[in-house]
UniProtKB/TrEMBL annotation:
Keywords: Cell outer membrane, Membrane, Signal. It is found in: Cell outer membrane. It comes from the Bacteria. Residues 1-32 form the signal peptide. It comes from Methyloceanibacter marginalis. The keyword Glycoprotein does not apply. This is MltA-interacting MipA family protein. GO terms for cellular component: cell outer membrane.
Amino acid sequence: MSHSTRCARNRFCAAGAFFIAASFGAASEARADPEGGRSVTLGGAAIVKPKYEGSDEFETIPIPIIIPKFSETVEENGSAITEVRKRVNFRGLDEIRIRVLGGERFHAGAVTGYITKRDQDDGPLLRGLGDIDGGLVAGAYTGFTLGAFQFDAAILEKVTGDDSGPEFRFGVETTQQITERTRIVARVGTTFASDDYMQTYFGVTPAQSRDSKAGLAAYTPDAGIKDVFFEIGGTMDLSDRWLLKAGGRYGRLLGDAADSPVVATENQFSGVLGLGYRFNLPQR
């Protein structure tokens, strides 16, 4: 990974610390501090993911966790920071959802995030193909709840760096409170990718084919279902001070994405593990 790529990722990770903290801390805030009071939870999380879509190698991205709580009592938890945390859902570096409208039954909002750069040195199949810039993500989502299940759809598109076209993600999830201290979320879904997206990340142009160190043939994929995936994650209060978040994701590339010559494996695994500790702040 180049120095400039590391710096770009680190800047985004630092800027996104509050957003992963939102997902990390909102479910645990009341349990972790039942008597109220001002506090800050500090910790770190590590995201492990394939180096690129289709890679059989992995990279680790560290993210700090910072969860401020400025209210003196539980009743005063209507602060702006608390309200923001309730509205943010961290689904990954490229999909941070921010609820704008609705409540428990129906909701809609914005999507942001960051798609990391794909470097031609990320794997032997990519050498000679050139780099694909990383960039900020913008989009929108909507969802509704039916019984114990939440159905949702989102559109995401990289709006800086190389133009790569949109993705459309569809999923259904359920949340279960296993114990007073433990909450589990399970999710299944699929991704539909546009022509431009498929060509950017899974295609090989004639020029790239000529430059390919692996001798890849030219390949032009069509728009279609890119993958299906299953995710499971949990948040646990280990004590009144320690908070734990862990999750894993299995995705399988399908169709033209799976058939791409840049794909080393159709099976894509990723995960996140985070730990935080709550410090009391002086009372006013």
